[in-house]
Amino acid sequence: MTRQYKAPRGTQDILPADQPWWDYVRDTAARLAREFGYAQIETPVFEEAPLFTRGVGEVTDIVQKEMYVFQDRGGTDLALRPEGTAPVCRAYLEHGMHSLPQPVRLWYITPIFRYDRPQAGRYRQHHQFGVEAIGEAGAAVDAEVIELLWRLCGELGLTGQTLHLNSIGDQNCRPAYLEMLRGYYRDKLSGVCEDCRARFERNPLRLLDCKQEICRPVIAVAPPIADHLCDECARHFADLCSYLDAAGIPFALNPRLVRGLDYYTRTVFEVQPREEGGQSSLGGGGRYDGLIEQLGGKPTPGIGFGSGIERIVINLKRQEAPLPDARPLQVYVVVQTPAARVPAFRLASDLRRAGVSAVAGSSERSLKAQMRHADALGAVYAAILGERELAEGTVALKHLADGTQETVALAEVAERVGPA
Predict the structure, then answer these.
(1) N or C: less crowded end of the chain, CB within 10 Å?
(2) Cα dihedral across residues 317, 32, 138, 260: positive or negative
């Protein structure tokens, strides 16, 4: 018996019925990015694996548990892209973008690969809209990036989402806070998960990012890092809050928000959906002022976010957000006689050249079957080609919604129905 293949676990087929949602999100994201002055970039689906182990962090879940790593035939360790920021920073360095006017504003829509436990809205291959602003340290660009994400949710028609905001300090104030955090956790290690016991020594800030139920009571009363920022970080965070207030963007201070990647500094943020228990963030990101230097460049500030398209589509459907009407098929050319096969094909081809969406039927189907097919495809018009029409150089043009019919010259069909 021949095996029936299925999509690999943790992946999905995006079928034609769902494509209008995806087009809506992608088109809105691309338009907004251009309005904010961002230029599109595309990076390879796979990179050298050390780009992520060095940039994202060796003790992150992404590197330890979730990366797809393999060797090519030359023995080079490669990884399918598990996140979007490190490849863009690599491209920034490789192509000398530091010589461009700063900050360099870039956006992308790209597949992301993580070996994660599949669930609704979380796939091993998912798709991400992301932006990166590299080369500017001021809080105004933080607010700009956050505004772009916030505007995206609003213009898509999502409602009720919350912007969570925090600062996790920098190399000046974070070390002292981490020692304080270790001191708080030291006598509580027996009551936290195994991963957190490992994080205690290697990456204590990630203790606050744990999602395990057993760890939540401990996290809830941990000392907040926002109370221990140095003057410069505190001033940067206050400036950011002022910019967001000026833009009319509401936010909730979340002292437990740290994000899951090692390269973050200072600003971190997430936009959470309205529904309680809904999929985690619609989008999130933060500042990564040390990442370019870690990848071999000069100290260069940066900030960005990633937003999962699958999660956005799930929430759009859940909220029954309005979806712009898809452009229908304009003309279905009905072949009423075998002699009309070639003329019908030519008419459909001419209509498409004129910007009118069209398909030609088949003379192997009856007139009734072709009309049913036209209805099933959602066609606006049926252009019927029979013996009389062939002799006269016309078509019988039928408006399928109301059943009205008229005779139209072949050369005037495109003008009569208008472009799709």
Answers:
(1) N
(2) positive
Among 57, 96, 128, 37, residue whose Cα is nearest residue 300: 96
| Tens digit of each residue's pLDDT (9 = 90 or more) over 306-360 | 999 999 999 999 988 888 877 889 999 999 999 999 999 999 999 999 999 999 9
pLDDT, one tens digit per residue, over 85-127 is: 999 999 999 999 999 999 999 999 999 999 887 777 778 999 9
- pLDDT score at 394: 92
Q: What is the side-by-side order of every strand in the sheet holding 405-409?
A: 358-360, 331-335, 381-385, 394-399, 405-409
Q: 3.40.50.800, 3.40.50.2300, 3.30.565.10, 3.60.15.10: which CATH number matches 331-417?
A: 3.40.50.800
DSSP letter at 119 equals B
pTM score of the predicted model = 0.86
Q: Which of 338, 328, 323 is nearest to 400 (CA)?
A: 328
For the chain, the structural domain boundaries read 19-173+229-318, 331-417
